[in-house]
Specification:
266 residues, mainly alpha
Length: 266
Amino acid sequence: MRDGNERVTGAPGTPRRYLHSLWLLSSRDLRVRYATSWLGYLWSVLDPLVMSGIYWFVFTQIFHRDVGAEPYIVFLICALLPWVWFNSSVTDFTRAFNKDAKLVRSTAIPRSIWVGRIVLSKGIEFLFSLPVLVLFAVFGGASAGWGILWFPVAVLLQTMLLVGLGLIVAPLCVLFSDLERTTRLVLRALFYATPIIYSVPDLPGVFRELGVFNPLAGIFTLYRAAFFPEQWDSLAVGVSAVVCVVLLGVGLVVFRRLERPLLKEL
C-alpha cells in the first residue's frame, strides 16, 4: 500500500494492514485540512469555544439559569467538545463515498475504511481540543475527581456509536441523495434534544424518561463525571452502552448488504 496523489492500493490483508491503511488515510485528511488553513489546529477549538462563550453569556448574563452546574462554562465545554466530534463526523458521513468515488471503486481495501477514517480524524481533533477544557477547568475552579476514569469509556462508546451510524448513513446517502440535507436538519434538532446546555436530571417528568434513550446523554454523563459527579445517571449510561453496541452491530450488517448497491451507484 502507498499514499500519494490521493491513491491507495493494496489487498485487504490482515487487521494490521487495515489499521495501517486507516491511519494513512486519516493522517492525510488531517494534513490536508491543516495545511490549507492559516489557523490550522486552532480551528479544532474555535468552534466549541465560541459556542460555549455564547451559551455561557446568554444563560449567565442575560437570562436566569436553573439548569446545568457550576462552573457552567466547564459544564458546557465537557459536552460541546464531544458534540463537535459527533456533529462533524455525521456531517462528513453524508459525503464520505461521493467525495472519493473514483478511489472507492478502484481500491481493494475494505470500503468501511471510509467511515473509519472520518471517525478517527475527527476523534484526533477532539483529543487535540482537550487542553481547552483543562485550561477552563483550572481557571474556573473545577476540580477533577475519580470520575475522570470514565473518560476512556466515553471515548470508546462514542467511537462505537459513530462507526455504527457511519456504516448506515454513508451508503444510504449515496443511494438516496436527499438524505444528506435531511441528516443536517436532524443534527440541528438533535443538538437541542441532547443534554449539552442542560443535563438529563434537569428534564421534567416524561422528558427525562425519554431523554435517557438518547445515546449521547449517557456518553456526555461519562465525560462530565470527572468534574460533576452529582450529574451521574446510571440509567442513561447503561442505555447508551446498550444502544452503542447494538447500533454498531446493526451498522455492520447494513453495510454488508448495501456495499454492492453502493458500488454500482458510484
